[in-house]
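(Protein data)
===
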Amino acid sequence: MADSRPKPPKPANKTPPKSPGDPAKDKAAKRLSLESEGASEGAAAAGPELSALEEAFRRFAVHGDTRATGKEMHGKNWSKLCRDCQVIDGRNVTVTDVDIVFSKIKGKSCRTISFEQFKEALEELAKKRFKDKSGEEAVREVHRLIEGKAPIISGVTRQESPGESRLQTTRNVQSVSGH
């Protein structure tokens, strides 16, 4: 009987109407718009070299995490950045080196690094990666490896058509029964 009471009028709509699309896409679009706003602020404050580096940082920071803001990076994404951008060369810089530098730079109780800490970590790796160059030159080289890059998506399985999966299932059954 409580349902028969008239409902109070709804307040004015404060948010724009949601698109009927996928909520994950909505989150990604919101995150990308936040990223681009942040990047334009960074570009105004710093030189173009830093904005390209920060853009790459943000792309890798949000990779694989729908809740990530792009302001901090997890160790997993740090390792991916170093692999995808060829900071890890297998001789001078290894996966272990990358993990050690991350652990050293981040705070004791933290799991992420900020953009400032990210730049410190790159300086550490630059000394190892480009031993033959001066400190400043080595840092510039590492920045060049990373600037403008985005995560490489590999190992993505393609979606099959229903007929294809039926055919594969039949083949598998035949090969098992045929011995």
In short: The longest helix spans residues 23-45. Residues 52-146 form a domain with the Recoverin; domain 1 fold (CATH 1.10.238.10).
